[in-house]
Design goal:
Layout: E1 4-8, H1 12-24, E2 28-32, H2 35-44, E3 49-53, E4 55-56, E5 59-60, H3 61-71, E6 76-81, H4 86-94, E7 99-102, H5 106-137, H6 148-160, E8 167-170, H7 177-186, E9 195-199, H8 205-213, H9 230-233, E10 238-242, H10 249-261, E11 263-265, E12 272-274, E13 278-283, H11 287-292, H12 298-304, E14 307-310, H13 321-336, E15 342-343, H14 345-353, H15 359-373, E16 378-379, H16 386-389, H17 404-418, H18 423-430, H19 434-443
Parallel strand pairs: 1-2, 1-3, 3-6, 6-7, 8-13, 8-14, 9-10, 10-13, 15-16
Antiparallel strand pairs: 4-5, 11-12
Helix pairs in contact: 3-4, 13-15, 17-18, 18-19
Length: 447
């Protein structure tokens, strides 16, 4: 079926004729002689488009269009107007109708108009589906981990999400602060509105001011036209300010004024703009120390730090590493190496012994690299970077990073990975005999 159409008209002959024409085009058609019957149909059928007469026995079609759109915003309405009464159609469009046609022209024009309206309906449904997928992607259930520290952080985020309170996310780089910010947004009443993010460390003071607050044409040399800032673009939604501790102190005062008034002045403008935006910030700095050093405003800190959440470092939640590593392995295997299905116990052991100064971001990068290098369905120690391969394994009789034999073993393995297991080619690259290579493979158990 091309879509579901509801015709609302008390003229039975006209309604029946129109229904027949529309049905022949593949649409499923329902009929109603008045508003009361129409509401019953709408309650039981997922109608895509309504064709509605202006004059009905129990309602005005123009007013009915507005009522229907308020309850069913993704249903499109085409209004039928009488000759010489185009104003009704125009008013209906102002009330949310898709378009109007005059009676008498309807048989010729209705099908092209229905097809255009149906394209809009499909587009709206697709957008709605994508929005649901995005919301699901950033659902709290998708933040992986069972360690107490991460569960405590998730519980706090769930508590604050439904409110409009400013949230400050604290933690080292790579601990997933933006993922938390997105999850808070999509669990809030603002979820249907924009979530925008900016890293304050990525811009100079002047550029960040323009990026956040926008500018008027002519405000500076390269400002050739008016530009909305992220604060204005995020109206009714959420703005995430990452690395807020990097913001220049002069710009902090302008941000503070916005937080106090919900108003700001664009660069080069004279009048203020009012918006409604929730602010979530993140930092890996000790802002209290920054305040002592007069690099961060104390009044701004207390405005932003209404509700703070500490995100744990990966080294403090090592029991979660196998779950996170498995998740990243599946993602990158689908993209680059579908044969990869599992990780060896030694591979996971090395991961859990690493310090992870780069936290989840570092783990993600290492798993991606390992998947690309893998020559079999299982990720092994040889797929890890050198520093993880020789990591503090004296208790297992492993060689240290300074042992010549250890370095030789790793180098041979890398060359074999490069040649995808072709030993003849590997021997040439290593400048050794093929027999020697086989002996080394057996000695180091590289088979």
């Amino acid at each position: 079926m091309a879509g579901k159409i509801l015709i609302i008209d008390d003229e039975e002959k006209l309604r029946t004729l129109m229904a027949r024409i529309i049905t022949l085009e593949g649409f499923e058609v329902f009929e109603a002689m008045n508003a009361k019957t129409a509401w019953k149909k709408l309650d039981t059928q997922d109608v895509d488009i309504i064709v509605c007469d202006v004059i009905l026995p129990d309602a005005n079609g123009v007013e009915l269009s507005q009522q229907i759109k308020s309850k069913y915003p993704f249903t499109e309405i085409i209004v039928l107007t009488a000759y010489g009464n185009i104003s009704d159609g125009v008013q209906a469009m102002k009330n949310g109708a898709f378009d109007y046609i005059t009676k008498g022209d309807d048989n010729d024009k209705i099908i092209p108009l229905l097809n255009r309206a149906m394209e809009k309906v499909r587009l709206q449904k697709r957008v709605m589906q994508l929005e649901k997928q995005v919301g699901k992607h950033y659902d709290f259930e998708n933040i992986l981990g069972e360690s107490p520290l991460i569960l405590d952080a998730i519980a706090l985020a769930k508590k604050v999400a439904p409110t409009d309170a400013s949230v400050m996310l604290l933690g080292e780089t790579g601990t997933g602060k933006e993922v938390f910010a997105q999850s808070i947004h999509y669990a809030s009443k603002r979820s249907g509105n924009p979530f925008l993010a900016v890293n304050c460390s990525s811009f100079s003071k002047e550029l960040l001011e323009s990026e956040l607050f926008g500018h008027k044409a002519g405000a500076f040399t390269s400002a050739i036209k008016d530009k909305k800032g992220l604060i204005e673009e995020a109206n009714l939604g959420t703005l995430f300010l990452d690395e807020i501790g990097e913001m220049h102190i002069d710009l902090q005062s302008k941000l503070l004024r916005f937080l106090e008034t919900n108003e700001f002045i664009k660069v080069g403008d004279t009048k203020s703009t009012k918006v409604n935006v929730r602010i979530i910030t993140a930092t890996n700095r000790d802002l209290k120390k920054e305040i002592e050093d007069e690099k961060f405003r104390e009044d701004l800190f207390y405005r932003l730090n209404v509700f703070s959440i500490q995100l744990p470092a990966l080294r403090d939640r090592k029991k979660d590493i196998p779950v996170l590593a498995g998740y990243f392995m599946k993602i990158f295997a689908q993209k680059t190496n579908p044969d990869v299905k599992e990780m060896s116990s030694e591979f996971l052991e090395r991961l859990q012994q690493h310090d992870w100064k780069g936290n989840i971001r570092e783990l993600k990068n290492i798993i991606e690299r390992a998947v690309i290098l893998a020559n079999s369905s299982k990720l092994t120690v040889e797929n890890l970077p050198l520093e993880l391969q020789v990591l503090n394994h004296k208790t297992h009789g492993a060689l240290s990073a300074f042992d010549l034999a250890s370095v030789e073993k790793l180098h041979i393995q890398r060359v074999l990975n490069h040649t995808k297991g072709n030993k003849t080619e590997a021997a040439k690259l290593l400048n050794i005999g093929l027999t020697t290579l086989y002996r080394k493979i057996e000695e180091y158990r590289l088979g």
